Amino acid sequence: MFLLLFTLSRTTLSSNSPSITADQRALLALKSHITHDPHNLLATNWSTSISVCNWIGVTCGSKHHRVTVLDLSSMDLTGTIPSQLENLSFLVLLRIRHNSFHGSLPIELTSLHRLKYLSAGNNSFSGEIPSWFGYFPKLRGLSLYMNNFSGVIPSTFGNLSKLKILLLYNNNLKGQIPKFILLDMRQIEYMSSSSNY
């Protein structure tokens, strides 16, 4: 009986290991893109000696033990977002608001098909709002407020049939509010695009 249990536990661990390793590698890539961590939150806690599910800001699902939530809100972090985050394939919520992330968001994030909430407000992201934001089939909340985004609201936002919250205020956007937001996105419960152009 002991031998059977030991064999089963080894099989379970080995089957979970590649997934956890993929999640761990993705998060370590993010850590390497952090140039300033004034409170040493990631520097001291995000370690290979600790299970990734116990890392600060990380929540894992109870069924698959994969990363489902990454919440780095208000940690005063500075850095960029690496493409390797695409490997967090079970991610449902990505919250990086109230930091100093800059640059652009990588297109590889479109691999996150389970993503329901993306909160990147109050950072220093720049450039146009990526049109590929319109290809998150389950997205319910998108917060991009208080950044340096420019250009217009992408027409692909019309594909976001489940979106309920859209926060775009305090950017450098221009043009008109697209008609599709008023006509096709009737599921929207709250939207703010003030303090733009």
Written description of the protein model:
The protein has 197 residues and is an alpha/beta fold. The protein contains three helices and 13 strands. Strand 2 (58-60) and strand 3 form a beta hairpin. The chain is globular. Residues 22-60 form the Leucine-rich repeat-containing N-terminal plant-type domain. Keywords: Leucine-rich repeat, Repeat, Signal.
The percent range for strand residues is: 15-25%
Cα radius of gyration in angstroms: 19 Å
Please tally the helical runs, counting DSSP H or I stretches of 4 or more residues: 3
Output the structural class: alpha/beta
What oligomeric assembly is this protein in? single chain
Q: How widely separated are the two ends?
A: 70 Å
The biggest beta sheet reads: 7 strands, mixed
In total, the number of strands is 13
What spatial form do the alpha-carbon principal axes imply? globular
> How are the strands of the biggest sheet laid out side by side?
2-3-5-7-9-11-13
Low-confidence stretches: 1-17
Mean pLDDT, nearest integer?
89
Helix content: 10-25%
H/E element sequence: HEHEEEEEEEEEEEHE
List the helices and strands and how they pair.
Blueprint: H1 2-32, E1 34-36, H2 41-45, E2 58-60, E3 67-71, E4 78-79, E5 93-95, E6 100-103, E7 117-119, E8 124-128, E9 141-143, E10 148-151, E11 165-167, E12 172-173, H3 179-183, E13 190-192
Parallel strand pairs: 3-5, 4-6, 5-7, 6-8, 7-9, 8-10, 9-11, 10-12, 11-13
Antiparallel strand pairs: 1-4, 2-3
Characteristic key phrases:
alpha/beta, 7-stranded mixed sheet, 22% strand, 197 residues, 6-stranded mixed sheet, 3 helices
